[in-house]
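Blackboard transcription, Thursday session:
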Amino acid sequence: MEKKFKWSLFLVSVLLGCMLTVQFSTVRNQSKLQATKSTDAVQLSADLIQAKERRLFLYSEIANLNNQIENYKNKKGDTEELLKEMADELEKVKMQAGASDVQGNGLIIKITEEPGAAEIFSPEEQEINGLLLGHALYSTVNYLSGNGAQAISINGHRITSLSSIRSVSATNLQVNMRMIYTDKIEIRAIGNIEQMKVGILGNELPVDYAGIGKHLEMVEVKDGSLLVPKYDETVSYEYAKPEGDNGL
Amino acid sequence: MIWIPMIGLALGVFIGLAFDLRISLQYSSYLSIAILAALDTVFGGIRASLEKSFDSSVFISGFFFNTLLAALLAFIGVQLGVDLYLAAVFAFGVRLFNNIATIRRLMVNRSRTQAGK
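(Written on the board underneath:)
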């Protein structure tokens, strides 16, 4: 009986082992499949949302272009008016891109040397301050843009999407790759004056400038005479190309 | 004696892995119930052996019958829309724990008897 028992127990255990392995393999494979499926689902839903947004964007673009075509068609008899319309459109685009001078109400922010800064800060600290000035200017432009500034220039250099502000060294601060005079910096910003002032004062930028030995002063221009010059650098697109039919 | 099911299990696992056996996902729930029934039978067999009442025919027939019955019960439950497999899980689960408890007691008693001698 003992021998029979051993053999039957052995056979049954072999079968049980087989069954367990089959079940483990199947369940493990199933969880892998489920993980892949859920990833796919997340990816697909994200793609779907993007595609929907793109469709809405394209619809609005089609509507705009149809309107433009209608305008041109309506004015096709009058070539002069058509040209004027196209010139206006071009001017609008140039203004938005920063390729033309703009004028309006806004703020002039003057950043000058804090009186007595030379005595307060050691030569090493002054060197660090010079390096930090670029970052402070960058923050200022950022806060102005975030508070409704529609056109900004620093010492006559227009800030656009291609602009750069960087401290190359303590005495070499560059805006749009051009070295600027750091003893007297003038930032011009056209936009909602009150909102921009809130952006500057609310983020305690005068305190930040005082920390690096600079004095910030704001002058409001409300008669619409504030001029922000155009971006005067040559733009050459080597890598970025206009989107084609296949791109977004 | 414990090494017999261990070797058998290891051999079964080896065969399963070597042949990379898999079943369709829809049948995996039936197999899980069948495994429970098989475990119950194996522990029942070990218990019967310790109680000196082991019958090979009962053991083998019990293994296949219980396994198939459990899977069949689960299948019928799916067809009827009732979770009948829960009945199998409950019944075999309780029996499994009872068998394991009895085996433990019997082994403890046996070791005590041997220590007494």
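Lecturer's comment: Chain A has six helices and eight strands.
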